[in-house]
Design goal:
about 10% strand, alpha/beta
Length: about 260
């Protein structure tokens, strides 16, 4: 009887020890997983500083939906997001994107989000951003980037470094225009031979700005050797070629963010 009790005690101790080791192992594993996820979720958003729509006398800037939808898609998955612009300070919002007709669930959330609005009002200076500090970069569109970010040497250098590090580089709507002067290491256009999309010529004509914008995005991408494609006007459409992710229009912003998230996993 005494021997049997001894065996039972020993077995109980072994089982408890085994469970304890298992639980510790699981805890360590989960902790490592959380650290890994956090490390892969530092994303830089780059917005325009330009607020004039050519010579029309109207205002432009970034398109709210193209910022808000990806911002919350990434934020809700634990991303640490930094926002920068060429000039720093307040990033101009395109008034047309802040109208009731352009409202979405994401834009309505943004309009009630004091923290996000404070970030937009106090963006970092783009020149001070180091790609080594981030795992991906995302450029929302709007017409503003056509005037400043397409010709911004800091933006070009930043994208090139992200690309050399094989980190995701993502753009939506007019934002692929900032790839105009971005090069591969051999001096060829970054978009040459790559599947890309962006705001189409027909969509630009539909909003009546073909003669106002400094360049037509579709034409520029094709001239630089890109394998450009698009869906119907205003339809969600995004393509990925390696670490390069592009979306066609405002409706494509969430698709771009989802592809970016998947690439970061």
């Amino acid at each position: 009887m005494k021997t049997l009790q001894t065996v039972v005690v020993i077995l109980s101790l072994i089982t408890a020890s085994s469970c304890k080791k298992h639980n510790v192992s699981e805890t360590v594993s989960e902790a490592k997983k959380e650290l890994k996820t956090e490390k892969k979720m530092k994303v830089l958003f780059v917005l325009t500083s330009h607020d004039k729509l050519g010579d029309t006398g109207k205002k432009t800037g970034f398109w709210v939906e193209e910022f808000a939808s990806p911002y919350y898609t990434l934020l809700d998955k634990g991303a640490a997001i930094t926002i920068a612009t060429p000039k720093g300070g307040a990033a101009p919002i395109d008034p047309s994107s802040d109208s009731p007709d352009a409202a979405t669930e994401a834009t309505e959330r943004f309009n009630k989000d004091a923290e996000a609005k404070n970030k937009i009002a106090n963006t970092k200076v783009l020149a001070a951003m180091n790609p080594d500090d981030f795992d991906a970069v995302f450029y929302p569109g709007g017409h503003g980037p056509l005037w400043d970010l397409t010709n911004d040497a800091n933006s070009v250098a930043l994208i090139e470094k992200f690309d050399r590090q094989n980190k995701p580089i993502a753009f939506v709507c007019h934002a692929p225009a900032v790839l105009k002067d971005v090069k591969n290491e051999d001096g060829s256009a970054l978009v040459k031979g790559k599947q890309v999309t962006g705001f189409s010529n027909s969509e630009e004509a539909a909003v009546g700005l073909t003669e106002v914008v400094p360049l037509l995005l579709e034409d520029m991408l094709i001239e630089n050797g890109a394998l450009y494609s698009n869906a119907d006007q205003w339809a969600p459409y995004a393509v990925q070629d390696g670490n390069l992710i592009t979306g066609q229009n405002p409706a494509s912003s969430e698709l771009v963010a989802e592809k970016l998230l998947e690439t970061l996993k």
